[in-house]
Amino acid sequence: MRIFSSFLFLVISWTSLDAQVINGYAQVTAIAGNVLTIGTTNETGATFTVGKDVVIMQMQDNVIGTNTGNNASFGNLSAIQQAGRYAIRKIAAVTRSGGVLTSVTLNGATGITFNTGANSSVQIITHELLGGGGNYTTVANISALPWTGAVGGMVSFQVGGALTLQHNITADGAGFRGGARDPWTYTTPCNTTDFRWSSIAAGTEYFATKGEGIYKLTNTNWADGRGKIINGGGGANQINAGGGGGGNYTAGGSAPLGWSCVADAGGIGGIGLSAQISGTRIFMGGGGGGGEGNDNLSTDGANGGGIVLIEAGSIVTTGSCSRRISADGLTAATSGNDGAGGAGAGGSIVISCSSFSVVAGCPLTIRANGGNGGTVNSSTHGGGGGGGQGAVLFTGTLPATNVTTQTLNGLGGCNETPCISRAGGGGGSNNGGIISEASAPLPIELVSFNATAMEKRVDLRWTTASELNNASFTIERSMDMQEWETILSMPGAGNSQSVLNYASEDLSPLPRTSYYRLRQTDYDGASTVSDIVSVSFEGAVGTLTMFPNPAQDLVTAIYDAEDAMAKLSVFNELGQTMSLPVQAKAGRTEFDVSMLPAGTYVVMLTTNGNVTTQRLLVQH
């Protein structure tokens, strides 16, 4: 039997011996504004320094909700929260203690409310600039640091000009970790009804460990058993069943009966996440569940694929060769007279590139394939489930000439040798995870956003360090940070790698304190918002602001007086009072003008003997 003090996951990643890790990684334990508190770090590949770009990413989040009962629904997705979301920002400052990184200050707001709770994990990864902003030719294979549960799992870099591939770029097996096998347990009876089980109760560990997924599992009472854990494959139950395959774009395969069982005792495959995946939300491949055994011949679940993020002007190959960019899930090892482990799911690749120049003599394969489940090298026992396919996203069109793109599902492992039957393979149609014209990762790098009171107006200024697929900016205003109105919009720069300064103004500011935020929208409609800034604007008593103006239906009037002290009247051009339904709140009144004929009207505010008027244009 196994005796564990904590969960055990397989951490082997098959990478080339000459591969180099070029990124630095740091766990984020707390976030206050744009200041990140740092926990575990790995700066072997690169260090965090001022001026360097970083990817801040929600690796895992509390997405399980109430799906924790001991039944087949255990481990279902409740709400995706922020899992998989990421942004690219620049470092403004770092602090170290004894040379160890302790905090990172970003040069601007994160744009996303990242979660750092007990069941969530956030990390930052250096987004390395290769070639100094110009062209770059690889000098060795590039790989990701394998995910440790706190850091790793991603290759991320940018090249200002042409990226010439003389080597491979891989995150194979660098994603969520496979679950540990159960090598020893009782032989009877078969267990088909327990979907979660403790990993630390010595003498009662009858089941293998679940693979990792986008929910950070900290409850040791749920670590084992055949239930999946979101996209992590379920661990096998007795007797001699196989582990479930991990999922990503598609679900992992479930494992079958086991030995002498009349119902499935194998792990359930991790779920598919295709509905959540976009250019701004991606995932590492789920780990496969461990196989269960009683002869010490079961095998571990395999690791999922990691993430590759590349920005380049173009991608080029030359000469006679074969190149790949890959984030494959791993295949589980073959077992003997026991259950085999489930496979890892394919990871995710995002490529933002204007063009490809790939020669016939050196074709390029871009792939995020699921691994195969472990096969049984004996009489009928439980093979491991196959891994689901990953996702490959291009911000432009799908490259075709001499480029092969794949997202293939893994096969279920054979339940016996010779192979008569198999565990389930990854779900869905092959290559469904290939996506073109995807949105880019949070298109703007916002350096600052400021609002300043200037006599009878508010000066609005913001600066971007870079923009990618940025369609427009919108300024939104609020008096209570609950209800927001749009006061102006302007186009973005589309794509830019230069510092750009923007300026506008609010000519009709709200009295007292008001709040502003900047919304950025990219070409496919995805948007993010900045941090909120406030302005204390002490207008004169009776100050009146209305929006929208011109109006078609509902108009909101804001004024510096309590509603009991104020009277609001609307007159037509003949001086006749318009009878309108109104809804009054403190310092705010809403009225509907949809019944009024189109034309110009005068709105009059009377408060404490002071009269303020403003013209209102009604259009239909």
Short recap of the structure:
The chain is built from no helices and 34 strands.
Q: State the oligomer.
A: single chain
Q: What's the main sheet like?
A: 7 strands, parallel
- What percentage of amino acids are in beta strands? 35-45%
CATH superfamily of the domain at 444-537: Immunoglobulins
CATH class label of the domain at 444-537 = Mainly Beta
Q: Distance between termini?
A: 77 Å
Second-tier CATH architecture of the domain at 444-537:
Sandwich
What structural class results from the helix and strand content?
mainly beta
Tell me, what's the shape?
elongated
> Tally the helices: what do you get?
0
The total strand number stands at 34
User: What would the average pLDDT be, to the nearest integer?
Assistant: 88
Would you mind describing this structure in some detail?
By secondary structure, the protein is mainly β. Among the domains are: 444-537, Immunoglobulins (Immunoglobulin-like, Sandwich), CATH 2.60.40.10; 544-618, Immunoglobulin-like (Sandwich), CATH 2.60.40.1220. The protein has no helices and 34 strands. The protein has strands at 9-10, 25-32, 35-42, 53-60, 86-97, 100-106, 121-126, 128-130, 136-137, 142-143, 154-164, 169-170, 178-179, 307-316, 323-326, 348-357, 364-367, 391-394, 403-406, 434-435, 444-454, 457-478, 485-496, 500-506, 512-522, 527-529, 533-537, 544-547, 554-559, 566-571, 582-585, 588-592, 599-607, 610-618. The strands form seven sheets. Strands 8, 9, 11, 14, 16, 18 and 20 form a seven-stranded parallel sheet that branches. Strands 21, 22, 23, 24, 25, 26 and 27 form a seven-stranded antiparallel sheet that branches. It has a six-stranded antiparallel beta barrel with strand order 2-3-6-5-4-7.
